[in-house]
Amino acid sequence: MNTIHTDVAIIGAGSAGLSAYRAAKAAGASAILIEGGAHGTTCARVGCMPSKLLIAAADAAHHATHTAAFGVHIDGAVRIDGREVMARVKGERDRFVGFVVAGVDAMPAADKLTGYAHFIDDNLLQVGEHTKVQAKSIVIATGSSAVMPAMYRALGERAIINDDVFAWNDLPRRVAVIGAGVIGLELGQALARLGVDVSVLGARGRVGPLTDPDVRAYAERVFSEAFRFEPRAQVQAAVREGDEVRVRYVSDAGETIEDTFDYVLVAAGRKPNVGGLGLSNTSLELDADGLPVYDPLTLQAGARPVFIAGDANGVLPLLHEAADEGRAAGLNAARYPDVAPLERRAPLGIAFTDPGIAMVGARHADLVPKSFVTGEVSFEDQGRSRVMLRNRGLMHVYADRENGRFVGAEWIGPDAEHIAHLLAWAFQMKLTIDDMLRMPFYHPVVEEGLRTALRDAAGKLA
Ligand SMILES: Cc1cc2nc3c(=O)[nH]c(=O)nc-3n(C[C@H](O)[C@H](O)[C@H](O)COP(=O)(O)OP(=O)(O)OC[C@H]3O[C@@H](n4cnc5c(N)ncnc54)[C@H](O)[C@@H]3O)c2cc1C
């Protein structure tokens, strides 16, 4: 077996691994990037990008069928061609993947290895059956995989995950989406808007990432009006019947419902890909889930020369966090043992539903009760939102009672992805509610709704 020596070995060529590789090389270290699966990253192949492409098609369909209230009538049927929808999703997706793959192709051949890696000890990896890599430090950037509960595994190819949706050549007729987190809601609403008969079945009352009870209840109402949405369904059985799946569940109202679907799309959470890494061969301390205990700022596992970045560490499974963590892990691996903490950006999460959902700063669930005031705005009477007939939404902004600082926000509403950036920048700059109210607001814009919420918070602080 061939043995290669390197300063830094990186397991996984996803967004975190690629960032780690570039950072290690820029720091002057030698580095080997190891990939066992397909190149192109989860984000571009089966995550962020194809899901947003599907949502874009869904939005086009929705707008085309919701013109009448403006006095604009489409006299004739709006036709959704599932094959064309999926052809665009896959065509554009392949273009994005192509850019990533071209970047990998341009890397020196000596810096890349193909095969699944596992640890033999803290500094030694085996890659496939062919190569050993002796590294001064190692970055684990192996990403995460969709969880498939046992009940659905027996359904064979009729139980699918997000990856499978983006392999479709045509849209199916009926889909049960299991899970009401961000992925379940985004894909569920998109498929519903594209004419698929969708039921989104959550289990624990989740509505995307929301933790504020009022905002969550509002969002639940909005989605329940748009498609069959049961955030507290108890699925009792899922049985294969030929090419279909019969699902029986008890709804929140206590009703037993039986329905038949072409597919069960399981979006019931993701778990870090650490199972096959042979971590028991290392001296790393592992937690109850088998994940290395690590410092969330240096990304270092204990005092060992091992770093863990991106979805693999199971904390913030978001693209920009994976890229930031990868960069920090790569740099620290190159400089080991001289490691430095990552300066985390403002927490920011977005679900690309319609209306959009966003979270900035502290989550409502993590705030100390009575330490903050809540400023509120409903978008139902918000000027510009009504003009555009997009006047659904409820926003809560949280301000520290002691010093008036903006500490977080959760909301559902129009243009959430853009307003979320304004708020994340304000959070990171440690602005107070008064500072924010001194900023310009144009008229008539959706941001005036944000101003109403900020004014409400300011009034409660006074
Ligand atoms: C449907 C969906 C939609 C999403 N939408 C968004 C969004 O809109 N915005 C956002 O910010 N985030 C989104 N995400 C999350 C985002 O895609 C991830 O946070 C990000 O891609 C994680 O990057 P990563 O580098 O940690 O993992 P990955 O990109 O998955 O890379 C891990 C790599 O490691 C390889 N690997 C695993 N084990 C081994 C091994 N033992 N040896 C060698 N190689 C190995 C894998 O093959 C893989 O290529 C979405 C995710 C999904 C699934």
UniProtKB/TrEMBL annotation:
Active-site residues (renumbered): 443
Keyword Transport annotated: no
Membrane-spanning intervals of the chain: none
InterPro entries: FAD/NAD-bd_sf, FAD/NAD-binding_dom, FAD/NAD-linked_Rdtase_dimer_sf, Mn/Fe_SOD_N_sf, Pyr_nuc-diS_OxRdtase, Pyr_nucl-diS_OxRdtase_dimer
Cofactor(s) annotated in UniProt: FAD
UniProt keyword Nucleotide-binding, yes or no: yes
Binding site for FAD: 52, 142-144, 311
Cysteines joined through disulfide linkages: 43-48
Residues noted as binding NAD(+) in the record, renumbered to the chain: 179-186, 269
Record text on cofactor binding: Binds 1 FAD per subunit.
A GO molecular-function annotation: flavin adenine dinucleotide binding
Keywords, sorted A to Z: FAD, Flavoprotein, NAD, Nucleotide-binding
Domain Pyridine nucleotide-disulphide oxidoreductase dimerisation: 350-453
Family: Belongs to the class-I pyridine nucleotide-disulfide oxidoreductase family.
Protein name, entry field: FAD-dependent pyridine nucleotide-disulfide oxidoreductase
Origin species: Caballeronia insecticola
